[in-house]
Every structure is written in structure tokens, then in C-alpha cells.
Amino acid sequence: MAPTTPRVVIPIDLTKKAWEQKRSLHNRWHPDLPPVAEVKVGEIFRVEMIEWTGGFISDNDSAIDMKTLDLSTVHYLSGPIRVLDKEGIAAKPGDLLAVEICNLGPLPGAEWGYSGIFDRENGGGFLTDHFPGAAKAIWHFEGIYTHSPQIPGVRFPGLTHPGIIGTAPSTELLQIWNEREGHLEETGFQSLTLCEVLHTRPLANLPTPKGCLLGMVEEGTPEWNKIASEAARTIPGRENGGNCDIKNLSRGSKIYLPVFVDGANLSTGDMHFSQGDGEVSFCGAIEMSGFLELKCEIIRGGMKEYLTPMGPTPLHVNPIFEIGPVEPRFSEWLVFEGISVDEKGKQHYLDATVAYKRAVLNAIDYLSKFGYTKEQIYILLSCCPCEGRLSGIVDSPNACATLAIPTAIFDQDIRPKSSKIPLGPRVMRTPDVLKCTYDGNLPITKNPGSST
Fold it and tell me: N or C: which end of the chain has fewer CB within 10 A?
């Protein structure tokens, strides 16, 4: 017999905000969040999810929502989902949970998404010292393709994927996270020279009850207060998977997640229609409400069998990702190089982050010569299917990073030619992205060799 239609285990009502959904969502990691659904291995099931701000960002002609978003509320995840084997026995700590992405896409009625830049005083991004003001672009979906009224002359196929997929941490692992990230927040500004180059604030997002949504746990109860004070933010990727933002995890992909609690308690969210490697503007992917159709397998004892701890405990492991067979095909790319020398000309020793920053800045400045504003290109490089690479990490003193951009996404030839770049109104790409003013007073980095 043919397989049955995937069972919807977590539905989403697009007319409601995240905290109003029939099955409550959550925006923190904690071992005591009760599961809201249960599945068995081999079953194909459907998980629906709201875009990561819970519906705060709107399809309109203003970027004020990007400027005023309360980042303590994100990301809104669907789950936790308890996973059982065919005999009804739950996944156990030490197992591996293999999660296959069978199908995915935008929710019907929500065939649009957005990308943006956060205000430097409210989240910032990879290049926040160059782009301090909030901005937004809306993207319209046409099947597998997307285009934006705010970034004209660009169209590309999306490689749709979940930005976040992970299992619940154990109490011991949660304590490890909070201790190491708290130490970084306390000492990082004094010890990390990279802070002078990236200007990223804060260094870590520590537990806070502000903005907390804890699924089935009722707010105001002693249990809610305890969990809210301990639960980890969903901002970074960690040992449990989480916010890894791997753009290639699309149809046919499989994720091998370590299991730390009984039942695994799988959660997912932060759906992206498309993303560039690095998601450099922070809200850089094309964010959307969407669905996943998943199938799980439990590999008993798989953590010890397949994962090597890179730390002092058996919990210091990382997931394995198997990329699916479905990707856009591009044959021609323009590649930008960056080395570990910052905008002031200062040499950094084999620093891949500085090198990638330089590659992105070089690409932005180059593409702005073809009629685009730099904000348009910054957002575009966050969400188009560009490829980031660590090309050299051994040749002292310079790390070498590259950013490859598919030339076919543009409606003009962007390659260098013997004739000069056309100038004037006929090449201007208007309208621009939606923008807000920057009202802060932090210093802004200027590249002395950059074009205006």
C-alpha cells in the first residue's frame, strides 16, 4: 500500500502570533520542557512553524519593525517532539537521532519572506560597524524562485532549509553552556582582540526570563520561573545542533543529532527560503513560515559509536550532517578573496573571521559599482545562494577566505571587462531597501580605499 499522508503533529495558524498557537511553541532550550507531540521511527510526520520572530515582521513598506524587534523573544521553535522506537521505547541519552528531511516549503498563504539588517544598538550583525541602521527587503516566492521589489534585477532559486533543528540538552550540558558563555561575557572584551574588529555586541546571549516562551509550562508558576532563569537562548549552534544555519540541509538531507534526554525532545524552526553562507547580516536569510516533513531513526548507543568528544566530557560532541541531492545548479561564479588584514591595515594571525569579513566587504564594494546601494548588496549576500570557503588556514600569517557569487542571479554581466562600468541613471537599481535612521553614537568603520 502507498504510504499515508504525513500526520501533522504541530500545526500553525497564520492568523495568530506565536504565543497564541494551539500547541504552544518555545524559544529556549531546557531539559524540563515537556513534549507537545510524540512520533515513532519510520513515520513521516509534518511539523509546521512560524517565522522566527513569531509574526512581528510584516510585509509592508517600513523597516521600523526591524529596528524595534525585541530579540529576547527569538527564535520560536516547534516542539519538543518525543521520539519512540517501533516497540514504543523512547530514545535514550547516548543514542543518535537520525532525522531525514523528506519534504519542506512555505506554508500555504505565506508565500513571502524577508531579509534585513538590525540596528547596531539592537543586535547588529557581521558588518554592524559598517551598516549601523536597520533595513529590510521583502521577497516574493514564485515556485522555487524568488525576487524582491527592493533589490531589482536579481532572481534566483531558493535552497529551502530549517535554520534550527536540535535535541534538548541534559541538565549537565545546560550547565556547561551557561558557565562557559557566562565566562565569555565576563572576560571577552578584555581578552579578545577580535572584538575590536567585529564590533559585535553582546558576546553571548545569557539566560533571561524576559521574552521567554516555554511551551506547555504555564507562565507565573514556580516551574516556569525556574526554567526561565536557566534555559539557554537559541541564538548559537551548540552540541545539540540548534541554530547551525547550514543552507544545504534541504530535501533529502539527514541530520544525526546526539540524544541527551529521554525521548530526545526534538525541536525545529527558523525556516529559510534561501540563505548565503554565513548569513552575514544576522537576519540575512529569507525568513519565512514553513513546514517540514520528517522521518526519524534511533541509532542505539550511537553517540559513543560515532561521535568523538572535543572537550572534557562525553557531552562535548557535535552532530553530523548528510547533505541531500537537491540543489540549484550554477556553472559560473565570481569569487572574492579576503585575507586576515583588517580595514585599518592591521595584520591578524591566521584569523579566518577577519579574512571572511574582508571577502564580504570586497564583494559589497565591487557589486555596488553596478548600480546597487551597499545595503542592497549586504542583504543580498546574506540570502542568495553564495558559497563561503576557508581556502587557506595554514599559510602564516594570512588566513584566506573566499566568497563565490553565482553570476546568473543578476540580469546584467557583473564580470570585469576592458570597457568601463556604465554610469548614470540607467544603471541605478531603484527602489532601494526599506531603511531606518541610525540614532546611536557608536563609531562607524570607514574603509579608506572603498568607493562611496
Answer: N
Paired strand residues for 271 = 162
Three cell numbers written together for 204:
553571548
Instruction: Give Cα separations from 8 to 23, 39, 46 (angstroms).
Output: 12, 11, 5
Closest CA to 136 of 63, 54, 71, 70: 63
Question: 141 with 148: CB under 8 angstroms?
Answer: no
Residue 169: count other Cβ atoms within 10 Å of its Cβ: 25
What cell numbers appear for 392 in the block? Answer: 587557506
Distance CA 6, CA 66 (A): 35
Q: List Cβ neighbours of 242 (8 Å cut-off, separation of 6 or more).
A: 29, 164, 165, 166, 234, 236
Tens of pLDDT, residue by residue over 54-74, are 999 999 999 999 999 999 999
Quote the pLDDT of residue 425: 60
Provide the strand spans (E) within 252-384: 254-258, 266-272, 282-287, 290-299, 320-322, 333-339
pTM: 0.96
Phi, psi of 180, deg, nearest 5: -70, -35
Q: Give the chain's mean pLDDT.
A: 95
